[in-house]
TrEMBL record:
Single GO molecular function: DNA binding
Keyword Cytoplasm: no
Keywords from the named record: DNA-binding
Lineage top rank: taxon: Bacteria
Protein name: Heat shock protein HspQ
Length: 105
């Protein structure tokens, strides 16, 4: 039987990396580190959750997969400017992001 993990962050939440100048919007959560460049594992057993996000670093957009322990909530209130956000997420009334009801091609 697999152990259930509770995600600390949500789809559409803007986050930042705890060490590097990177901000992003989460679009997927995964328990598998297969797509991540994870470095050292946290503690014994499972490494935790990984978040896929539309990220920007010095205004260069890319898709990242980062371990939960390396992320913090972003409190800046600034939007994330990434060309792929509109395909999966839309901006809500409060300026946050949420999943699109219909995906764009």
């Amino acid at each position: 039987m697999s152990k259930t993990q509770i995600a600390r962050y949500n789809i559409g939440q803007v986050i930042r990396h705890r060490l590097y100048e990177m901000r992003g919007v989460i679009f997927d959560v995964d328990a598998s580190p297969a797509a991540a460049d994870i470095g050292p594992m946290q503690g014994p057993g499972t490494p935790g959750l990984f978040y896929r996000m539309f990220a920007v670093d010095d205004q260069i957009p890319y898709v990242a997969c980062i371990a939960e322990q390396d992320l913090l909530p972003d409190q800046s209130g600034e939007p994330v400017n990434h060309p792929e956000i509109g395909g999966l997420l839309e901006v809500d009334e409060g300026g946050g992001y949420r999943r699109r009801k219909r995906l764009m091609n």
